[in-house]
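Changelog note: in this version the structure field was regenerated for every chain. One regenerated record is shown below for reference.
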Amino acid sequence: MDGKDTIKALAERYFEETVAIRRHLHAHPELSFQEKETAAFISTKLKEYGIEHQTNIGGYGIVGFIKGKNPSKKTIALRADIDALPIEEKNDCSYTSKNIGVMHACGHDVHTTSLLCAARILQEIKEHFEGTIKLIFQPAEEKLPGGASIMIKEGVLKNPDVTHIIGQHVLPQLQTGKVAFKSGIAMASCDELYITVKGKGGHGAVPNLAVDPLLISAHLIIALQSVVSRNANPLLPSVLTIGKCIANGATNIIPEEVKLEGTFRTFDEKWRSEAHQRIVQICTSIAASFGGSCEVNIDKGYPFLKNDETITNNAFALAQAYLGKENVEEMPARMTAEDFSYYSQVVPACFYRLGTGNIEKGITSSIHTPTFDVDENCLKIGAGLMAWIAINSLA
């Protein structure tokens, strides 16, 4: 069997149905930990393809098994996330979200569809490879503690043990037909900051009788920038952003408290811990110096994502063989975060980027926006390349 040509032919043959699957998923998005109907749809498709699978793992997670010849020889895993975001879609198309306020704005419909089609291809050619391919359809990537961490605790990488795991993510800034890889540390850790600044409310005309939590918050927001600018190693990427400030006062009312929310991201666990301590110190000491107080809750999120060098370099070469060298790029590390990182902390992993943009068609919107969409030709590559990498990873 000429594996590459066979896989490409099958991806082409199933393309029309693959598009229909993606459009169904896009039109029926579900939020994290609520993916009941999405999981039922995936299960129905796996049954249709004759693929053995288990349901309700880590919530609505599904694990499928494609067993080639000598299935105990080696097991690898392929992963897709299935949840959507709380965004109201603004696209005008036949498959616009039917669930008000919920949208597949991060491409998880593409990830799920690609894995379903890859699974169908692999099931059809399973007599031509040895080993087992584990299919992981994972819920709740978008919400802490992350579906990956829950599925891992429930043994998704065991029975049989997975030697390594492969995943992909849409990248609208990359044109359809291309993919991109980054070996080593590829994505940042991600922590959520919840800060409550407490003062003493009062009339805006007599601020001397109050303790102004807004003034304290202004100083905190500025001072917190020193965590990165003056405490972090300049050679170590770090980001601290305060993105939300709630102060329910008025033109003449100083409120009792102010709530701040933000994120901290970096690539080093030791510095991550030190930064958490520094954030608490800055907030509590500044608030106290103004006569107020401060409560800091740091919700520790996903760790940094590390792509195994050997696995990633091998996948890079396989992608070049499948797509042509001109369509495979190296990409820099990103400060965005993904709960695929949990898998990468347990087994060797490769998480690569799938180009989904098309400037000529006007498909340019970024992920997490209400106008995000993809050039659906990306589905041929999303499915075919994953199948191609999988069978060669079992060799």
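Spot check on this record: The chain has two domains: 3-186+304-393, 191-300. DSSP finds eleven helices and 16 strands in the chain.
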